[in-house]
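Reviewer 2 asked us to include a model.

Predict the structure of this chain.
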Amino acid sequence: MSKTEKFWDQASKNYDKTEERFEYIHHKTRENTRKHLEISNVVLDYGCGTGSTACEIANDVKEIYAIDISSRMIAISREKAAEKNIENVRFVEGDIFDEKLKKESFDRILAFNMLHTIPNPENALQRINELLKPDGLFISTTPCLADKMSFLIGLQIRLVQIMCKIGIIPVPIRRIKSSDIDRLIAKGNFQSIDSEKIYQGASSYFIVAQKKSAQ
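Predicted model (structure tokens):
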């Protein structure tokens, strides 16, 4: 088990509790996402965490394949789905680069609150482009820690960055701006079709981008 997997396994115990303070952002993200979903869609939820979003939108789509590198996050997700009798979501421990994921097999790919934590987002966007069907949509929300935030959140972020620097948190939590996400999307061969800056103590950037057709 890698240090990153171990970290997220440990974080799973209190993950939902720690995310409650950002419920407005999560609610707004799901509300915006539903506008771009169709009942016939096959969806990949990349970095699904404890499965809250997948369970919330399950009735809006045909099928969801939800992945996370943390086995404990996946276990919690499965418990949530079972409690709610959700049968069209499959939770699997895995990564976006798993060869079992076939090219052009998803109508929508979601990546919520995680692009600022992965080692190489450019490679991830390239892989997402490969996995999407022609004209498929990539839907994402990313905390923009270099944009507007409250004084308290700013102090917490600085503490987290110190913990990252000394190795307590083995995750590369980057301070980025919404403009960085725009550049990442364009570089990944996507066309932005919808976006919104959402604020609750800190700025998050919601964006929907369509896979460009092959020339």
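The first helix runs from residue 3 to 11. Strands lie at 42-46, 63-68, 89-93, 106-112, 132-143, 190-199, 203-211. We have added this to the supplementary material.
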